[in-house]
């Protein structure tokens, strides 16, 4: 079920015959001198980890392998890191740094490569399960697994919250926000998300408010916000947010204020959110629904 030949001075190409090892779960050939393209391994339906970085492999990852990423394959690494990568990969969850044979490019402090791989697999599994088997946002996953100074484990109750904050940052143009200090990029200290600009938390460290108005946010509202189960107020007004309001925001049981006007949001306010207004749970709902020039159709808003 496992082949682990890290830094074993392997050369040549990966033999196509490996595809007949149908019970194989882990194939780790990191840190060798393997050449040539990656063969079709689509018959390995139980494969969970395919680790091929720090080699001389070239070419495009077969689409049949990328299809495995939607099923069993959790961890897939190849040399696709640089601007001119040796391997072109549209589905790798991590790209190894080229040129340091046998070394992992992104292991946490004090962790071996094998320990880091197990930790990443566990975190990805938790994220997939929590978000209905959707693929994690790559930049946010890389943050919680590799670059976050706090280095949470898969069983940490704050992992999902930490990941969601990273999703908001990366999908909504965080590097261009009008804030004094970026949320996650360039973080030198182990900062709790409750110290981030525009974030309010309760005494237990749960995010209860996002005050991100006039912060130069862009992109679309990520549905992952629905995982912030304690949140009461979201103000993202007067930004450059586009797209539609996710139906999943209606799952926020404690949400009292949702303020989104002054953006480029369009479409119809989801029925799940209007139901919260009807139940008198959502006190303020403000979008661009002015009768003269409505961007958003809303039958339950308190303000337009």
TrEMBL record:
<keyword id="KW-0677">Repeat</keyword>
<keyword id="KW-0472">Membrane</keyword>
<keyword id="KW-0732">Signal</keyword>
<dbReference type="GO" id="GO:0016020">
    <property type="term" value="C:membrane"/>
</dbReference>
<keyword id="KW-0812">Transmembrane</keyword>
<keyword id="KW-1133">Transmembrane helix</keyword>
<protein>
    <submittedName>
        <fullName>Uncharacterized protein</fullName>
    </submittedName>
</protein>
<dbReference type="InterPro" id="IPR032675">
    <property type="entry name" value="LRR_dom_sf"/>
</dbReference>
<dbReference type="InterPro" id="IPR001611">
    <property type="entry name" value="Leu-rich_rpt"/>
</dbReference>
<dbReference type="Pfam" id="PF00560">
    <property type="entry name" value="LRR_1"/>
</dbReference>
């Amino acid at each position: 079920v496992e082949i682990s030949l890290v830094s074993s001075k392997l050369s040549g190409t990966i033999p196509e015959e490996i595809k007949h090892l149908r019970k194989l779960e882990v194939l780790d050939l990191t840190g060798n001198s393997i050449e040539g393209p990656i063969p079709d391994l689509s018959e390995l339906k139980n494969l969970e980890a395919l680790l091929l970085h720090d080699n001389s492999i070239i070419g495009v990852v077969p689409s049949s392998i990328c299809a495995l990423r939607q099923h069993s394959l959790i961890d897939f690494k190849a040399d696709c890191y640089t601007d001119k990568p040796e391997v072109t990969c549209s589905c790798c969850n991590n790209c190894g740094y080229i040129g340091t044979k046998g070394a992992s490019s992104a292991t946490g402090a004090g962790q071996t490569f094998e320990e880091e791989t197990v930790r990443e697999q566990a975190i990805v599994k938790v994220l997939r399960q929590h978000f209905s088997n959707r693929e994690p946002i790559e930049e946010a996953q890389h943050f919680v697994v590799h670059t976050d100074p706090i280095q949470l484990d898969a069983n940490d109750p704050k992992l999902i919250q930490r990941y969601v904050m990273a999703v908001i940052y990366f999908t909504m143009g965080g590097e261009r926000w009008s804030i004094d200090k970026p949320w996650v990029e360039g973080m030198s200290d182990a900062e709790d998300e409750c110290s981030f600009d525009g974030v309010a938390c309760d005494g237990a460290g749960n995010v209860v408010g996002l005050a991100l108005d006039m912060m130069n946010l862009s992109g679309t509202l990520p549905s992952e916000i629905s995982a912030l189960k304690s949140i009461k107020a979201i103000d993202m007004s007067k930004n450059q947010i586009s797209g539609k309001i996710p139906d999943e925001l209606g799952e926020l049981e404690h949400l009292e204020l949702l303020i989104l006007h002054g953006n480029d949001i369009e479409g119809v306010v989801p029925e799940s959110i209007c139901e919260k207004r009807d139940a008198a749970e959502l006190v303020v709902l403000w979008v661009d629904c002015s009768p003269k020039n409505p961007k958003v159709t809303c039958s339950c808003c308190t303000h337009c």
